[in-house]
TrEMBL record, chain A:
<dbReference type="GO" id="GO:0005886">
    <property type="term" value="C:plasma membrane"/>
</dbReference>
<keyword id="KW-1133">Transmembrane helix</keyword>
<comment type="similarity">
    <text>Belongs to the RnfG family.</text>
</comment>
<keyword id="KW-0812">Transmembrane</keyword>
<keyword id="KW-0813">Transport</keyword>
<keyword id="KW-1278">Translocase</keyword>
<protein>
    <recommendedName>
        <fullName>Ion-translocating oxidoreductase complex subunit G</fullName>
        <ecNumber>7.-.-.-</ecNumber>
    </recommendedName>
</protein>
<feature type="modified residue" description="FMN phosphoryl threonine">
    <location>
        <position position="178"/>
    </location>
</feature>
<keyword id="KW-0472">Membrane</keyword>
TrEMBL record, chain B:
<feature type="transmembrane region" description="Helical">
    <location>
        <begin position="99"/>
        <end position="117"/>
    </location>
</feature>
<feature type="transmembrane region" description="Helical">
    <location>
        <begin position="73"/>
        <end position="93"/>
    </location>
</feature>
<protein>
    <recommendedName>
        <fullName>Ion-translocating oxidoreductase complex subunit E</fullName>
        <ecNumber>7.-.-.-</ecNumber>
    </recommendedName>
</protein>
<keyword id="KW-1003">Cell membrane</keyword>
<keyword id="KW-0812">Transmembrane</keyword>
<keyword id="KW-0249">Electron transport</keyword>
<feature type="transmembrane region" description="Helical">
    <location>
        <begin position="38"/>
        <end position="61"/>
    </location>
</feature>
<keyword id="KW-1278">Translocase</keyword>
<dbReference type="GO" id="GO:0012505">
    <property type="term" value="C:endomembrane system"/>
</dbReference>
Amino acid sequence: MRPAHALLRSMGMNALILGGFALASVALVAATWFATRDTIAAARRAALEASLNALVPAARYDNHPAEDVLRLAPPGAPPLTVYRARKGGAPVAVLATVTAPDGYSGPIQLLVGVWADGRLAGVRVLAHKETPGLGDAIEVERSPWIHGFDGRSLDDPPRARWKVRKDGGDFDQFTGATITPRAVVKAVQGFLDYYAGHREALFAPATETRP
Amino acid sequence: MSTPSAAEILRNGLWHNNTGLVALLGLCPLLATSNSLVNGLGLGLATTLVLLITNTTVSLIRRWVNPEVRIPVFVTVIASAVTAVELGMHALLPELHRVLGIFIPLIVTNCCVLGRAEAFASRQAPARAALDGLAVGLGFALVLVTLGALRELLGQGTLLAQAEILFGEGARGLTLHLLPGDRGLLLAILPPGAFIMLGLLIAAKNAIDARARARPRPAPATAATVADGHVPT
């Protein structure tokens, strides 16, 4: 029985070694997580607030839109996260994460800001996989195109011209890329429509708050 | 395994056995994140830090790890080191972390990290293993930076765009706009451009090596300068 005994012994040793290293590794990762947790949470929050403030300046509201959150799941559409800006309790603007599902290479994530009166505070691209050098002109860092939405509303331009120029509308397309701006224009108009129909619900007091 | 001198370790890691140009390991992050100088530098430094940590750790524990379980132990060490580096980057450089995204955790799968642990660090003293990690990592970072700089320059006509995500707000002014016009050679930014430019870099390295070999004075032949199909002239 000696070989079997020796085998068991070496298996036990190896199991102990593996277990020991697994424990040490978990301890290291856990310690790093504890040490960085607050900084990461603060960085996330700062990034979110910076992107919200780019559309609705902090001076215009006195609540915490990053905490005044509404999560919606409209039927047949991707879920929306809505941040609400208020001043003295009165509605100022909503900022919603809107998805344009029909980008050239996958969905485009947008942040759309709408003032309480229905005019656009602005639009920013949060994430996309459009072609670098062509479709990525929707990024504010690459071209001023996205500023074309500033101040627009459902009546400006009229509904028939809420399209890219190629389709007979008022919004520019890019040389070599029509699908990307078309998808963005459609998604922005779609959210303005949603806003017009659900204004009360969008500004309703939060049923869920984030810590 | 013989113990190579510090100079040999540096020469091999940075040039003769360069991860990106000779060993061709870690091509996925190399090609994917080299679309700008800053991105390349960011991933290069993160990989170097990981290699430094894992090589040192693996060398320190090499006497306690049986051959049968060494690979799972090395993988555990690498995975936890990468996770720690990723968390640190998220906390300290959140913008760079956002841009590099999935390629930070994917450093785990870069074969060169496990490769150096197994082939070098597990057989050498900690100081040498650490130096090897540093040399191999910097060699990889060098290729990433060169490729990133070339692609950014040709594709966007800039250098050091978005420097602030790596060096802080003060570095915003470092960005150089070198080529006129707002649109460069699109191909350079796209994935095929990454392959083409890497191919050109490898060709350039081989040409430099061939010229060095052709010199009249007898150059010391090293095992790492593998025959690359060229007939020595």
